[in-house]
Specification:
heterodimer; A: 344 residues; 80% helix; B: 461 residues; mainly alpha; two-stranded antiparallel ribbon; 69% helix
C-alpha cells in the first residue's frame, strides 16, 4: 500500500503536466474554434451585403459570444495555475499584443449590447465590433507566431525587449489566423444564415480557403526552418512515416472542403474548417512538444507543484464534461434565430 | 527619456482596471439574485408587474454584465502582463483558486446567460427560470473564489516558501478558508446586495415621483427597502467583526485606517486629520478620547498598535485608508438611516406619498458603488507594501516590463474604459428613463380576437 502510494508520488510529476497540457490544449482549441468563428464575423461585418445581414450576423452569435470567450479566460487562468512559469514568462514577453488583444475584445464585446440600444450612433458600435474583432484576431495570430519563435529567458524571467514579438514570421501568422477565422466564420454563416447571405458566405469561404491553403504550405516550410529540432522531428525517416498522416489528411480536408463548397453543402464546410484547424494545431503540437516556452523550457520545468495540479484536476475532471454539456444545450436551444428579436 | 517608474505605473493601472471592473459585479451579483426572486414571484402569482419589472431590469442587467465580462477578462491576463513575479512565485496557490472560479462560475454564468437573455420565448418556462438561477448562482460562486484568493493575499495560511522563493500549498482548506475570508466574503456579498438595493429602490422612488410605471416603482422600492432595513445594520455588525479580524492579522492596516502613530491604551477615535507620513504625525486632528479602543477592541482600555511600532518599510501610507474608511462608514450610516426611515414610513402607510423621502432615495442611489470602491481602497492600500501579506512585497511582484509599455497600456485603458463606461451609463440611463414595457394581459385562447378592440391596442403604446 505504502509502496503503491510512493510509486504514485513518483509518477505524478511526470503525468500531471502531460494531463494539464492536454486540458489547456483542448481549452485553447475550443477557443480558436468558437472564438474564431465569432471574431471572424467581425472581420466580415463591414463587407456584408446589407444592414439586414449585419443584424443577422450579430444576432447569430449574440447568445454565445460570452461563453466562447470564457475558453480564452480558461486558457489564461489555466496557464497560470498549471504552468505558472510559462505564464510569467510569456505574458510580459507578449505585453503589447496581449494588451491590444484585450482592447479589441473589450470594444467588440460591448458592441453586442450597445449596438442594439443605439440609433444615431449605431455606426460607432458597428465600427467598434469590426475593428475590435480584427485587432483581436491579428494579435492572437501574432501571439501564436511569437510563441513558435520562442522567448529569451534568463533566471526564470523574460529577458528580451518590448518588441521581440514583432517579426516577419509573426506578421504572417497574424494574417494566417485572420484568414482561418474568416473561413470558420463563413462556415458558420453557411449553417445559420438565410439563402442570400448564405450564397455570399460560400463565395467568401472559397477565397478564405485558398488563402488558408497557401498559408498552410508556407508554414509547413517555414516553421521547420526556425528551429533545427522541429525539422529533425518531421524529417527523420522513421518519423516521416509515422507523421505522414498529418499532412496527407490536411491535403484531403482541403480538397473535401473545396468540393463541399462547390456542392453547396450546409454543415460540412464548418466541420471541415474545424478539422483543418485541428490538423494545423496537431502539427504545431508535434513541432513544439514538449516545450511550453520554446526553445528551452519544457512542460515539466514550467509545471506548478504536483499538489496544485492535482487539486485542480479533482475539479476539472467532473466539471469540464458538465460545461460541455450545458454549452451544447445552449447552442441547441438557441440554434434557430428568432423571427423578430424578442429580447432587445 | 524621463524616468518612468514601472512599479508605480503598474500599480496605478491595476488600481484603475480593478476598480472599474468591481463596479459591475457589485451591481450584477445583487441584480441577478433579485431577478431570480422576481421570476419566482411571477411564476407563483402570475402578476404581470413582476414579469414586466424583470424584463426591464434584465436589459439593464445585460448591459452591466457585458461590461463586467469584458473588464474582467483583462484582469485574468494582468496578473501575468504586469505582476509576473507574483504569478510565478504565488501561482501554485493563486492559480488553482482562479481556475476554479473560471470552471465553476464564469462558464456557468456565460453558458446560461444566453438562455436567460434570449431564451424567454424559446425554451420552456422552467428551463428559463433554471438558467436565471444558474446565472445568479454563478455570480455568487465567482465572488466566493475571488474573495478567497484576495483574502489569502491579505491573511495567507496553509503554505510554505521553498528555497527558490516559490510558494507551495500544504493545506488547501487553510488556503481557501484563510482567517479573513469568511468576513471579507460576507462583507462583500452584503455590500453587493446593498448596492443593488439602493439602485433599485432609488429608481423605484423616481418612478413614483414621476408618476411613471408607478406599480412597478412601488414593487422596486418596497423590495429594495425590505433588504435595506435588515442588511444595512447587519453590514455594520459584519464590518465590526471584519475589523476585529483585521486587528488580529493586519495590525498595521488598522493603524493606518485609524491614523494612529503611537501605540497606546485607551486610543482615541480620530474623526478628522491629515496624516503626514513624513513627520509621523497628524495635522488638524479632531478626536474623541478612548472611543478608538472601544470600537477596535470592544474595551475602553485596550492597547492599539500605532504605525511607529512597524518599521517604515513595512507600513502602508495611511492617507488613503484613513479617508476611504470614513467615506465607507459614513455611507453605511446613511444606508441604515434610509432603511429605517423607509420602514417607519411603510409601516405607517406614508411611504409612497412622502415626497422628500422619495426624492432622498432617488438621490442616494450611487452611494453603494462609492462605498464598495472606498472599502476596497481601504483593504488594498492597507495591505501595502505587500502583495501577499508579510510574504511577498509589491516591489518584488512586478513584471520585467519597461515603463513605456505600461504607460502606453495605462493611457489606452483610461481612454477605452472612459468611452465604454460613458456609453454604458448613457444606455442604462436611457433604459431607466424609458421604464418597463407594459404588456397587455394575455388573452385566453377563445377570446383571442377581442384583442382587436381599440382599447386593447391603446393599452400597448
Amino acid at each position: 500500500m505504502t509502496e503503491q502510494a510512493s510509486q504514485m508520488t513518483e509518477y505524478l510529476p511526470v503525468l500531471l503536466p502531460l494531463v494539464w497540457a492536454a486540458i489547456l490544449a483542448l481549452a485553447v482549441f475550443l477557443y480558436v474554434l468558437l472564438g474564431g468563428y465569432d471574431l471572424g464575423l467581425g472581420v466580415l461585418f463591414p463587407l456584408a451585403p446589407s444592414d439586414k445581414d449585419r443584424d443577422a450576423m450579430m444576432a447569430s452569435v449574440a447568445p454565445f459570444w460570452d461563453g466562447n470567450e470564457t475558453w480564452l479566460v480558461l486558457g489564461g487562468g489555466g496557464l497560470l495555475a498549471a504552468f505558472p512559469l510559462a505564464y510569467s514568462v510569456m505574458l510580459p514577453a507578449l505585453y503589447i499584443p496581449i494588451i491590444l488583444m484585450l482592447m479589441g475584445l473589450i470594444l467588440r464585446g460591448v458592441a453586442f449590447e450597445f449596438r442594439f440600444k443605439s440609433e444615431r450612433s449605431r455606426w460607432v458600435w458597428d465600427l467598434a465590433f469590426s475593428v475590435g474583432s480584427i485587432l483581436a484576431a491579428l494579435m492572437q495570430g501574432v501571439i501564436i507566431g511569437a510563441f513558435i519563435q520562442g522567448f529569451a529567458v534568463n533566471d526564470n524571467q523574460f529577458s528580451g525587449g518590448a518588441f521581440d514579438w514583432l517579426s516577419p514570421f509573426s506578421v504572417l501568422t497574424a494574417a494566417a489566423v485572420l484568414a482561418g477565422y474568416v473561413l470558420l466564420s463563413a462556415g458558420w454563416l453557411i449553417m445559420k444564415a438565410d439563402e442570400a447571405l448564405r450564397e455570399w458566405a460560400y463565395g467568401i469561404a472559397n477565397i478564405a480557403l485558398v488563402a488558408v491553403a497557401a498559408f498552410i504550405v508556407i508554414f509547413s516550410i517555414w516553421t521547420p526552418l526556425l528551429h533545427a529540432e522541429i525539422a529533425a522531428r518531421w524529417f527523420t525517416p522513421a518519423n516521416m512515416v509515422m507523421l505522414s498522416p498529418v499532412p496527407l489528411i490536411t491535403a484531403a480536408s482541403i480538397v473535401a472542403l473545396w468540393t463541399a463548397l462547390k456542392r453547396r453543402q450546409r454543415y460540412t464546410p464548418f466541420l471541415l474548417g474545424a478539422a483543418l484547424f485541428l490538423l494545423c494545431y496537431t502539427g504545431l503540437g508535434v513541432s513544439l512538444f514538449p516545450f511550453i516556452i520554446p526553445p528551452d523550457i519544457t512542460i515539466w520545468q514550467a509545471a506548478a507543484a504536483p499538489e496544485s495540479q492535482l487539486f485542480m484536476l479533482y475539479g476539472a475532471v467532473p466539471i469540464l464534461p458538465i460545461i460541455l454539456g450545458y454549452t451544447a444545450y445552449s447552442y441547441w436551444a438557441l440554434w434557430e434565430a428568432p423571427e423578430h428579436d424578442a429580447y432587445h | 527619456m524621463f524616468d518612468l517608474d514601472p512599479l508605480l505605473l503598474a500599480r496605478i493601472q491595476f488600481a484603475f482596471t480593478v476598480s472599474f471592473h468591481i463596479i459591475f459585479p457589485s451591481f450584477t451579483i445583487g441584480l441577478a439574485a433579485w431577478l431570480l426572486v422576481l421570476e419566482a414571484l411571477y411564476l407563483k402569482t402570475g402578476n404581470r408587474i413582476y414579469a414586466e419589472t424583470s424584463r426591464h431590469w434584465t436589459k439593464i442587467f445585460a448591459v452591466s454584465f457585458g461590461m463586467g465580462v469584458v473588464s474582467g477578462v483583462v484582469l485574468s491576463y494582468q496578473f501575468g502582463t504586469n505582476w509576473s513575479e507574483f504569478s510565478r512565485r504565488g501561482g501554485n496557490v493563486i492559480g488553482p483558486l482562479m481556475s476554479y472560479e473560471v470552471l465553476t462560475a464564469f462558464f456557468l454564468e456565460a453558458g446560461f446567460l444566453g438562455i436567460m437573455l434570449f431564451g424567454r420565448e424559446r425554451v420552456p418556462k422552467g428551463v428559463h427560470f433554471f438558467a436565471t438561477a444558474m446565472v445568479a448562482l454563478g455570480t455568487v460562486i465567482s465572488a466566493f473564489w475571488i474573495l478567497s484568493a484576495n483574502s489569502w493575499m491579505q491573511t495567507p495560511t496553509g503554505f510554505r516558501v521553498a528555497e527558490d522563493g516559490v510558494l507551495h500549498v500544504e493545506d488547501w482548506w487553510l488556503v481557501i478558508f484563510n482567517p479573513s475570508f469568511p468576513y471579507r466574503f460576507a462583507h462583500m456579498v452584503v455590500a453587493c446586495y446593498l448596492t443593488t438595493a439602493l439602485c433599485v429602490g432609488g429608481i423605484g422612488a423616481w418612478y413614483i415621483l414621476r408618476e411613471q410605471s408607478v406599480p412597478h416603482g412601488k414593487v422596486m422600492l418596497v423590495m429594495a427597502l425590505s433588504l435595506l432595513v435588515w442588511l444595512a445594520p447587519l453590514q455594520l455588525v459584519i464590518g465590526d467583526l471584519h475589523g476585529l479580524n483585521t486587528r488580529e492579522h493586519q495590525p498595521a492596516k488598522i493603524a493606518a485606517i485609524e491614523a494612529h502613530w503611537e501605540t497606546q491604551r485607551g486610543a482615541p477615535l480620530i474623526l478628522f486629520a491629515i496624516p503626514d507620513p513624513k513627520t509621523e504625525s497628524n495635522r488638524f486632528e479632531i478626536a474623541i478620547p478612548k472611543l478608538g479602543s472601544l470600537i477596535l477592541a470592544h474595551e475602553w482600555d485596550a492597547e492599539v498598535k500605532g504605525l511607529k511600532s512597524f518599521p517604515p518599510e513595512d507600513r502602508p501610507n495611511p492617507i488613503i485608508p484613513f479617508f476611504a474608511f470614513r467615506i465607507m462608514v459614513g455611507i453605511g450610516i446613511i444606508m441604515i438611516a434610509a432603511g429605517s426611515i423607509g420602514a417607519v414610513l411603510w409601516l405607517t402607510g406614508r411611504l409612497y406619498t412622502t415626497r422628500w423621502y422619495l426624492r432622498f432615495m432617488s438621490w442616494i442611489w450611487p452611494l453603494g458603488f462609492v462605498a464598495v470602491l472606498a472599502g476596497w481602497f481601504v483593504t488594498e492600500v492597507g495591505r501595502q507594501p505587500w502583495t501577499v501579506y508579510g510574504v511577498l512585497r509589491t516591489a518584488d511582484s512586478v513584471s520585467p516590463v519597461p515603463g513605456g509599455s505600461v504607460l502606453m497600456s495605462l493611457v489606452l485603458f483610461v481612454l477605452v474604459y472612459g468611452i465604454v463606461f460613458g456609453a454604458g451609463v448613457y444606455y442604462i440611463a436611457k433604459l431607466v428613463r424609458r421604464g418597463p414595457d407594459e404588456t397587455p394581459p394575455v388573452p385566453e385562447k377563445d377570446e383571442a380576437d377581442l384583442s382587436h378592440r381599440p382599447m386593447a391596442a391603446a393599452g400597448n403604446p
